[in-house]
Amino acid sequence: MKASRKDTRRKSLFDESMEAFYRAAELIKLDPRVRLELEEPDFEHIFYITIETRDRLVPVTKEEEARFKDLPASSVKAGEALEPLANGQLVLHRRALLKADITLREGVLRIPKRGLFRIEKGGPKKFKAYRIQYNQVRGPYKGGVRFHKDVSLDLFKALAADMTWKTAIADIPFGGAKGGVRIDPSAYSKEEIEHVSLRFIYKLKTVIGPYVDIPAPDVNTNPEIMAIMMRQFTDGERMPHAMRGVVTGKDVRIGGSEGRAKATGQGTVYCLEEWARWRGESLAGKRVLVQGFGNVGTASAEILHALGAKIVGVQDAYGTVYNEKGLDVPALLAHAASPDNLRRSVEGFTGGTKVAREDFWKLDAEIAIPAALGGSITGDVAENLKVQVVAEAANGPTTPDGDKVLGERKIDLIPDIICNAGGVTVSYYEWLQNLRMEHWTEADVNNRLERAIKANLGIIHDIATNSPQKTPLYDSRRFVVGKKIDMRTAAMALALRRIENHYLLEGFSQ
Ligand code: NAD
């Protein structure tokens, strides 16, 4: 018999990411109209941006090298005039040619100490860009901007939905959004990335704003990019200083919040402290695996290391390092930040041994922190994990199969929508400070963050274990569902109740 179309259709990433939504909606008997409102985004902005790219020097192939072996070296002004990219190419800024002595053959030249390169002409380039505004019933749309070669509408819908649940769980007055550009940032210069960022905001200007939609950093975007996005939005406005809250995750010197850079990792660690407390244990001495050594991975590793935990394994896109006695985290951070480490990678770190990529999650440890991209904890990976808990610092790191296996194997889970909510929570504090023209201390920020994360995680834990209670910090009695459920569904149940309240109490406008 022929299988129906429905049977054979592969689930999209968005469909997969919504499984917990449907599970929780069913369980709490979410109002049917609210459910329809939340099944799809409010708006899907898909657009294109163009920039002008510079000429490049592209390494010649191995086969070609022999043909140019007698080519004399050219002397060009190196330094920043020849900008090395993480993909091995060099961007040729015109000033490199000032006082240069160049020998070109068939468009190829030899750069001392670097090798043979072919000049390739730059020109206009087009990139696909997205901003998905998922829901705003609780407040302005809020979510990061990702620059990556593998982004899609489907991915951004999933991530924007996640932001909607996350802001509700963090109990901050924002909705959910996400967006970014399909680009491989390792192939573009700093100036070209700046131009991409400027055009991105130029195109979005009419649909974002401090009370409308507030972007923030995500994968491959950072405080410098937030600064130029803010400038692009506020340039020429009559009251630019009143609009600093249009983006968060800015540098602290221009309206960013103390503690924001580390906030996501800090939130993950607060969650892990609570997890250890539930078990009557402490984090000191626990062995930790961290996947991803960017903003979130480095902060998580650094804070856990300071608390006495042992970071035994770290993996990023280019390498994996392992040390059963615990890696020297400050030394690893210095290695990744060194100026000639263009990929900011842990690869080549001498304070540990190399491990095959596929063996990373099989390493012995108590805590696993996926802090890279989505989908890394699959069913197969979960089968082989030796840890006691997975703390989802990344967005969507566990697939539905992975979830099932973690549950069967009784490995604890701290779901992403609370585990990495520290970032958006401190983004809210940054937004508040911008609107009030205040600057809070790091201690103020972290105290508030700790209380918020631990209280909301406490409610989720109470829902999961069906233990309604009123404590000095929170009241979980309104949220329990009358039976024990898994932590991911519990987190979603909390988010949906808080969102539903807005719809039911404010009503619909038709
Ligand atoms: P980042 O760009 O600073 O770092 C990403 C890291 O992941 C890099 O070290 C990169 O090498 C690594 N990586 C990429 N592909 C990999 C692969 N296939 N295997 C192993 N490592 C890989 O990004 P970030 O801001 O640290 O974000 C990491 C995750 O945390 C993302 O899922 C993001 O959505 C989520 N997140 C970030 C924030 C924030 O405040 N930055 C907040 C909430 C959630």
Low-confidence stretches: 1-5
Total of helices: 17
The secondary structure category is alpha/beta
Bound molecules: nicotinamide-adenine-dinucleotide
Helical fraction: 25-40%
Over all CA atoms, what is the radius of gyration?
A: 24 Å
End-to-end separation in angstroms reads 47 Å
The average pLDDT score comes to 94
Task: Work out the strand percent.
Answer: 15-25%
Largest sheet: 7 strands, mixed
Number of strands: 17
Strand order of the largest sheet: 14-13-12-11-15-16-17
Overall geometry comes to: globular
How does this model look, in words?
This protein is α/β, with parallel strands linked by helices and 510 residues long. The chain is 38% helix and 17% strand. A 7-stranded mixed β-sheet has the order 14-13-12-11-15-16-17. Strands 1-7-9-8-10 form a 5-stranded mixed β-sheet. It has a 5-stranded antiparallel β-sheet with strand order 3-4-2-6-5, with no helix packed on it. It is globular, with a radius of gyration of 24 Å. Nicotinamide-adenine-dinucleotide is lined by residues 217-220, 264, 291-297, 315-317, 371-373, 393-395, 420, 423.
What's the layout of helices and strands?
Blueprint: H1 5-8, H2 13-17, H3 19-28, H4 32-39, E1 43-52, E2 56-59, H5 62-65, E3 82-84, E4 90-92, E5 108-111, E6 115-120, E7 124-135, E8 141-148, H6 153-169, E9 176-182, H7 190-204, E10 213-217, H8 223-234, H9 260-278, E11 287-291, H10 295-306, E12 310-315, E13 320-322, H11 329-337, E14 353-354, E15 367-370, H12 379-384, E16 389-391, H13 400-408, E17 412-414, H14 416-419, H15 421-436, H16 442-465, H17 487-506
Parallel strand pairs: 8-9, 8-10, 11-12, 11-15, 15-16, 16-17
Antiparallel strand pairs: 1-7, 2-4, 2-6, 3-4, 5-6, 7-9, 12-13, 13-14
The site of nicotinamide-adenine-dinucleotide has 23 residues, from helix 10.
